[in-house]
Specification:
about 375 residues, TIM Barrel, 8-stranded parallel sheet, 3-stranded parallel sheet, globular, binds S-adenosylmethionine, binds iron/sulfur cluster
Length: about 375
């Protein structure tokens, strides 16, 4: 346990240290999580911030091998929620003091779509007197589009790199212009340049993935000076090409355990960033997101997508909370957060301190 305590206090964790922490199991793992959780509350405080999540459309032009709403899945029931219903969800978030919302969907970059989003962001800002913070997660776009959305009022953007290892990236994506590793990487840099608080992340427990690669993912976040991270376990979907490799997967519980280890290790590596408790954690363990809050995560995303369509945003099977109304989901989430000994930052944007620290450093 001494070695673990030393690593928890260490300033610059190496790839070797991180690989060791990510792979911990049994009592040592519990000790690591508990001690990291304690240190995290002492340094970052108790607050957790809400982001009301609206998964407004599952139309997608891409074919990522792992995702249930990929273009090639003819069995997915497609939907696109109209602007009025999205605005209603935004008002719900605002009235329930969530502070922020997240707009997420499959990837489209046609002009009809990009212009619609610009207008939608403006309408949300108007409807909530500029008080609701907006995070968007709408995939790879041109610099011009990113700028337009930023100027319309969105101020945080999530674009997961999925894996920072190029070889693994191409095992889980088609190798074509539409799924280009360098393009995705450049999009993250462009988001930073435009001025977004920029988030990325990876899936944990992918077929072929190693602990060393996961350690590299954490170092990648640090090297890229990322402000926010959302990462969670990979969960297979039977209507996707990656399902052919299901025999290579770690058991679900192992993927969950490693995901929590990753969150705790990242909290040590980057103490001032925002880390989200990913929904996929809850698909494996009913208290999954609440556990993540204990060991390093400080953002949670109650699903406020109109219930009628929730079941169709099936990135993976057995997705949680698909039949609850937004209110139920928000309520169950407040209880979970309080059970984790955390306080909810109602009406606060809960921006990433790392972003402001980064701005300060750039001024010097
Ligand atoms: N289309 C946008 C994109 O890909 O950036 C945003 C929506 S996409 C559904 C959001 C995230 O879902 C992806 O970045 C990916 O990490 C995650 N995801 C997709 N399929 C998954 C699966 N089978 N298991 C776990 N996470 C998955
Ligand atoms: Fe589309 Fe995103 Fe799913 Fe890839 S991960 S298929 S871009 S929704």
């Amino acid at each position: 346990m001494n070695q673990i305590l030393q690593l928890i206090q260490k300033e610059n964790l190496t790839k070797e240290d991180l690989t060791y922490l990510i792979g911990l199991a049994g009592e040592e793992r519990e000790f690591f999580l508990r001690e990291t959780g304690k240190k995290y509350v002492e340094t970052l405080g108790n607050k957790v911030y809400f982001r009301g999540l609206v998964e407004f459309s599952n139309y997608c032009t891409k074919d990522c091998y792992y995702c249930g709403i990929r273009k090639g899945n003819a069995k997915a029931e497609r939907y696109d929620i109209d602007d009025e219903a999205i605005l209603q969800a935004a008002r719900f978030a605002h009235e329930h003091n969530y502070g922020s919302m997240v707009l997420q969907s499959g990837e489209r970059s046609d002009e009809k779509f990009t212009k619609r989003i610009t207008q939608l962001i403006k309408k949300i800002k108007e409807a909530t007197q500029g008080e609701l913070g907006i995070t968007i997660s709408l995939g790879e776009q041109t610099e011009e589009t990113y700028r337009e959305w930023f100027e319309a009022g969105a101020h945080r953007y999530l674009l997961r790199i999925e894996s920072s290892n190029k070889e693994l990236y191409y095992k889980i994506h088609p190798q074509d212009d539409n799924h280009n590793f360098e393009k995705r990487l450049n999009c993250i840099k462009t988001l930073q340049k435009v001025g977004f608080q920029t988030g990325t992340g990876v899936m944990i427990g992918l077929p072929f993935q190693t602990f060393e690669q996961l350690a590299d993912d954490l170092l990648f976040f640090k090297e890229m000076n990322i402000d926010m991270v959302g990462m969670g376990p990979f969960i297979e979907h039977s209507e996707t090409p990656l399902y052919a490799h299901k025999d290579k997967l770690w058991p679900l519980q192992r993927r969950f355990d490693v995901a929590l280890n990753m969150i705790a290790a990242l909290r040590l590596l980057m103490p001032d960033i925002n880390i989200a408790a990913a929904t996929a954690l809850q698909a494996i363990d009913k208290m999954g997101r609440e556990k993540a809050l204990r060991y390093g995560a400080n953002i949670i995303m109650p699903n406020i997508t109109p219930t009628l369509h929730r079941k169709d945003y099936q990135l993976y099977e057995n997705k949680p909370c698909t039949d609850e109304g937004a209110e139920d989901c928000g309520n169950c989430m407040s209880i979970r957060v309080e059970m984790a000994g955390r306080e909810i930052g109602y009406n606060e944007w809960g921006d990433s301190s790392h972003f402001f620290n980064r701005q300060e450093q750039n001024k010097k």
